[in-house]
Specification:
Blueprint lengths: L15 H23 L11 H9 L5 H14 L5 H34 L4 H9 L3 H17 L4 H21 L7 H4 L12 H4 L1 H13 L5 H25 L20 H23 L4 H12 L1 H19 L5 H32 L1
């Protein structure tokens, strides 16, 4: 089948493969958050066993990187993409991130400290100011707004993102510091206690924007994704073998131990991006050439309400972690994670219904 690339933007509208990718991303985000916060497994060592490795792998490339990659795609497909609109959305996300920190961690800790009659300011600051994916998302929107204001093409943005990543890795080694200053520095490069630094993760939304820029011109997605699937399969196998024979521990691409997953560099991000393209092509060939009404609706709901589901699940996990700590058996933690997935979707559904009802009344 011949692959046609049009000069005009012919592939508009919702891209269903991304709905499925984002649904899978949020599912594994919930599972890994429960695993991180509640299981008694030692996360300071590299994962052992099939289940532990599979969970951390699926919660690695298939989760946060896909979340960010899809965010970049959304920037290109959205009708609200002026620098002013993007910057405003970034500010809103950035504020929301710290509100989430307070309600999932800071407030819960205050109540817990009152009950225990013991309060640690350092713990409160960590729970309230630590970096997470929403801070990164907010900063990314603001940075893209600035780059668009400068009229830079997405290809140039992607090149800048690669240079930013190199700088982030270097700065992380240069300023391996402790103290409350990490809550600021960690927004930009990897330091202890902070995740998803802008310099090292900005490549994912930029890659998503670049991908969407070309996807819009594809008028034969069947042929396109067959090629992507085949090429990525070969590259993944070759890349994995090459890394293995060069004594590179593949676990360091996705493992939580030592924060190696969050400390992104060229090897990790390039491997993850290939995995993302492979995943998208697989989802397209499995789900997007046939209609599955119930699953399509669920994936669409997850995609449209991803941020809300993310916020709800973190509040559930945060308020559970303080009283029980990391005491759960891995099997029970997985079961609880699955329950929290259902609960997060249900609460989001109720919230959206209430929100729509209040808008209609106005």
């Amino acid at each position: 089948m011949e692959l046609y690339i049009s000069k005009e933007e012919v592939n508009s509208g919702r891209q269903k493969e991304f709905d499925y990718a984002k649904m899978v991303a949020i599912i594994f985000m919930v599972l890994i958050h429960v695993w991180e916060e509640l299981t008694k497994i030692n996360l300071d060592v590299m994962p052992e066993g099939f289940m532990h490795n599979m969970l951390q792998f699926c919660a690695g490339p298939l989760a946060a990187p896909m979340f960010m990659f899809s965010m970049g795609v959304g920037m290109m497909y959205s009708s609200h993409t002026t620098p002013k609109e993007l910057f405003r959305r970034g500010v809103n996300l950035f504020i929301t991130a710290y509100l989430l920190n307070f309600f999932r961690g800071g407030l819960a800790y205050i109540l817990y400290a009152i009950y225990k009659k013991s309060f640690s300011l350092n713990m409160f600051l960590y729970l309230t100011l630590n970096g997470d994916i929403l801070q990164f998302a907010g900063l990314s929107f603001m940075l893209v707004a600035l780059l668009k204001k400068l009229k830079l093409h997405v290809l140039h943005m992607t090149g800048i993102a690669f240079m930013m990543q190199i700088a982030g890795v270097y700065l992380g080694r240069l300023f391996a510091t402790e103290g409350n200053v990490v809550f600021f520095l960690g927004l930009f490069f990897k330091v202890p206690k902070m995740d998803f630094p802008l310099l090292q993760w900005f490549i994912y939304p930029c890659a998503g924007m670049l991908y969407a820029n070309y996807l819009k011109h594809i008028n034969n997605k069947d042929a396109f994704y067959k090629i992507i699937f085949g090429v990525c399969s070969v590259i993944l196998i070759s890349y994995g073998i090459s890394l293995h024979f060069n004594n590179y521990d593949l676990k360091s691409i996705y493992a939580l131990a030592g924060d190696v997953y969050y400390n992104q560099d060229f090897i990790k991000s390039s491997f993850n991006l290939i995995v993302l393209l492979f995943e998208l092509s697989a989802f397209y060939m499995i789900f997007c050439r046939t209609t599955y009404k119930a699953i399509d609706a669920l994936a669409g709901f997850a995609s449209k309400n991803l941020n809300t589901i993310y916020i709800v699940q973190w509040i559930l996990v945060g308020w559970t972690s303080l009283p029980i700590g990391r005491t759960l058996h891995p099997t029970f933690a997985i079961c609880l994670g699955l329950a929290y997935i259902v609960l997060a979707f249900a609460i989001t559904k109720i919230y959206i219904g209430i929100k729509k009802g209040s808008i209609q009344k106005k």
